[in-house]
Design goal:
single chain, 443 residues, mainly beta, 3 domains, five-stranded antiparallel sheet, disordered N terminus
C-alpha cells in the first residue's frame, strides 16, 4: 500500500491544520494507504506493447479522472470500485485524480502521476475510508485471555493482528479483537513506563507472537496466553545521526515490528537512545523492525523510515535539509525541486500540496489539492504543476485573487519506492524525506 504525504501524523505536531494526505508510507507507520502490489523504479524504456493498470478505490471518491500521457484529464466511471487504464504502446505516463469529501468541513483532490513501472495493480482512495479498509474476507471477532503478571512494570497488554487491535488495561485479563479471516499472526505485547519520571507508556516489556492462527477459530487453542521471563525484550542501541543545528534534538523514534505474514505492532513510540528488541526465539525469517523518526526547524522537516532484520544496534542517518522558498503565487502553482542530497539514490519522488480555508456562512471549510509524481514519471524532470481539474465539474475550484494559500513540498529518496507497496519497506531498506512549507497570496 502507498501513502502520499511525507509528514506522518504520528510524527507531526504543532500545526492547526494539515491536508488529508494519503500517498505516503503504509505498513511502516500504519497510516492511510494508496497502493498495493508492484514496485517502482526511477527510469526505464517505454512498454513494448499496450499495458493495463488496474486501480482499486476505497473510501468512496465522488469523482475519478484519468490523464493519458500529457493529455487532458477525462472523467471515469468505476466498476465495482475499480478502474482499468489501458496504456497504448506509445504512452508510458498517466495520471489519476480523485475527489474526496474527507469530512463535513474538508474536501481534497488527490493526483498520482506514475508509469507502469510503478506497478500494474494497486489501491488508492479517500482518507475517510482507510480506517475501515476491508479485509480480504471480512473481519471476525475472536476472544481469549492473557496473563503477563510475570513481567514487571506492565500497565497494559496490546493485542494486535492483521486488521485488528485491542488493549487489556491490566497485566492480565480477557480480550476481544476483530481480525482478518484466514491465517493471522497475533502479537501480544505487555507495555509499561520506560522510566518512572516522566512515566512514558507504550514501551514493550515483552513480546509473544502466535503465528498462523486460523481465523475464525480460537486463539492459542483456547488457552490463556501466558508470559515468562524468556519472553522479555532486551534494549539495543539506537542512534539518530546528521541532526542539523537548530533542529529538534533528540527526535523521538517510533519503533514497530512486522511479521513475515504482515502483522505490524508497536514496540515504542518515543525511543531516543535505545529500543526494545524481541527475544531471539520470537523471530522468524521475513520479520523486520521498522523505524521512523522526524525532526524539524520550521518550516523545514527531515524524516527517515528504515527497516532492519538484525535486531541489533541501529543508526538512522537523516538527510540534509532542503531550502526552498516556494512556488510563484498562482491558483495552480508550479513547484521546483532542486535538491542534491539524494543524488545517486535509486528512487526519488516528489510531492506538492496546496490548501486553503474557505469561509461559508461564518464557518471555515478546508480545501486541498495534493500531487505526487514518481521517479519513473518524472524521468529526470524537477517540476510539478498542480493541475487545473475544474473542466470536470466537482473538482476543487481555483483560489480567487487575494486568497491566502498554504503549501508544502517534499522529496523522498532511498532504496525503496516512496509509492510504497506492501509489505512496506524491503528488508534493510530505507527512505529519507525532506520537506518544507509556506504560504502566498494568489495574485
Amino acid at each position: 500500500m502507498i501513502v502520499f504525504h511525507y509528514e506522518p501524523a504520528e510524527l507531526t505536531s504543532g500545526s492547526n491544520y494539515a491536508p488529508a494526505c494519503i500517498i505516503a508510507f503504509c505498513s511502516v507507520l500504519g497510516l492511510s494507504t494508496i497502493g498495493c502490489g508492484g514496485r517502482s523504479s526511477s527510469t526505464g524504456p517505454l512498454p513494448p506493447s499496450s499495458t493495463s493498470v488496474t486501480i482499486t478505490f476505497v473510501g468512496s471518491p465522488s469523482l475519478v479522472a484519468v490523464q493519458m500521457g500529457t493529455g487532458a484529464f477525462t472523467a471515469q466511471t468505476l466498476q465495482n470500485n475499480q478502474l482499468t487504464i489501458v496504456l497504448p504502446s506509445a504512452t508510458s505516463q498517466y495520471g489519476v485524480a480523485w475527489h474526496c469529501i474527507v469530512s463535513a468541513v474538508t474536501t481534497s483532490d488527490f493526483v498520482l502521476k506514475a508509469t507502469p513501472q510503478d506497478g500494474t495493480a494497486y489501491t488508492v482512495g479517500c482518507p475517510n475510508g482507510f480506517s475501515q479498509t476491508a479485509a480480504p474476507s471480512g473481519l471476525v471477532a475472536v476472544t481469549g485471555s492473557v496473563d503477563a503478571s510475570a513481567i514487571a512494570g506492565v500497565n497494559i497488554v496490546d493485542v494486535t493482528g492483521k486488521q485488528g487491535e485491542n488493549i487489556v488495561f491490566a497485566p492480565s485479563g480477557s480480550f476481544s479483537v476483530s481480525l482478518a479471516s484466514g491465517t493471522n499472526d497475533v502479537a501480544f505485547v505487555p507495555m509499561g513506563p520506560s522510566s518512572p519520571n516522566p512515566p512514558v507508556i507504550n514501551v514493550a516489556k515483552a513480546v509473544k507472537i502466535l503465528r498462523n492462527q486460523a481465523i475464525p477459530g480460537t486463539i492459542n487453542g483456547g488457552n490463556t496466553v501466558t508470559f515468562s521471563p524468556a519472553d522479555m525484550v532486551t534494549n539495543e542501541t539506537l542512534t539518530v545521526s546528521n541532526i542539523p543545528a537548530g533542529f529538534i534534538n533528540p527526535p523521538a523514534v517510533r519503533v514497530n515490528f512486522q511479521t513475515a505474514n504482515g502483522t505490524v505492532f508497536a514496540l515504542a513510540n518515543e525511543a531516543t537512545t535505545q529500543y526494545p528488541a524481541l527475544p531471539a526465539a520470537a523471530l522468524q525469517t521475513g520479520d523486520s523492525y521498522l523505524f521512523s523518526t522526524q525532526t524539524a526547524s520550521m518550516p523545514q522537516t527531515l524524516a527517515i523510515l528504515q527497516s532492519s532484520t538484525s535486531g541489533g544496534p541501529v543508526t538512522l542517518a537523516l538527510p540534509q535539509p532542503w531550502s526552498y522558498s516556494g512556488p510563484a503565487p498562482a491558483a495552480f502553482p508550479t513547484f521546483t525541486f532542486n535538491y542534491s542530497g539524494f543524488n545517486g539514490l535509486p528512487v526519488i519522488t516528489q510531492s506538492a500540496v496546496i490548501f486553503r480555508t474557505v469561509v461559508d456562512a461564518g464557518e471555515p471549510f478546508f480545501r486541498s489539492i495534493e500531487v505526487l509524481a514518481t521517479g519513473s514519471y518524472q524521468n529526470g524532470a524537477n517540476t510539478i504543476t498542480v493541475p487545473d481539474l475544474t473542466a470536470i465539474p466537482g473538482f476543487i475550484s481555483p483560489a480567487l485573487s487575494g486568497t491566502t494559500v498554504s503549501w508544502s513540498a517534499s522529496i523522498a529518496g532511498g532504496s525503496a519506492p516512496e509509492v510504497q507497496f506492501v509489505p512496506s519497506l524491503p528488508a534493510n531498506g530505507s527512505v529519507a524525506i525532506v520537506s518544507t512549507s509556506g504560504s502566498y497570496t494568489v495574485p
